[in-house]
Inverse folding.
């Protein structure tokens, strides 16, 4: 039979783990403790809707729609949409609140986004249409650029950090296009 003292000693690490985990799970926002007012950040998010056109033996990848979101350090946002080889274009300019700017900056700094290694995400053979995204972040002069397709177009797992940042940028796009 196990002695109660051994159970109590074994429960202490579990209790500490729960005490550390609960605030992290219940916190709705990304912590902004890493925010430094002297940081300079520029984010460029590009999203291409691509289609593969087959000419029998050869194939060509064409962009049907391109969306470009640029967020500058001062909070100025530029959003461009290019449709059908540049025949239709739209351009929006807006600003982002300091709170949203701090949130996206903290997300990039706190999650280790800048240290994600370059990866290759091969496209599945049977996919003819897919979305390919790019995020280029310049933080204090250091640049990190990541390319990835939508999850349905590849066998490899897209890291959750990338999808979190993408989700935040998509929310910004939805706010300025409404």
């Amino acid at each position: 039979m196990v002695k109660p003292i051994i159970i109590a000693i074994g429960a202490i690490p579990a209790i500490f783990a729960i005490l550390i985990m609960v605030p992290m799970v219940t916190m709705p926002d990304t912590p902004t403790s890493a925010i430094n007012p002297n940081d300079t950040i520029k984010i460029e998010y590009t999203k291409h809707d691509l289609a593969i056109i087959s000419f029998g033996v050869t194939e060509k990848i064409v962009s049907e729609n391109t969306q470009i979101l640029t967020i500058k350090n001062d909070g100025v946002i530029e959003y461009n949409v290019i449709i059908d080889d540049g025949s239709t274009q739209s351009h929006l300019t807006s600003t982002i609140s300091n709170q949203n700017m701090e949130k996206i900056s903290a997300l990039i700094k706190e999650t280790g986004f800048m240290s994600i290694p370059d990866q290759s995400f091969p496209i599945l053979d049977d996919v003819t249409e897919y979305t390919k995204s790019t995020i280029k972040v310049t933080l204090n002069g250091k640049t990190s650029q990541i390319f990835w397709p939508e999850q349905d177009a590849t066998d490899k797992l897209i890291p959750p950090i990338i999808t979190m940042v993408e989700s935040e940028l998509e929310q910004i796009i939805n706010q300025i296009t409404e």
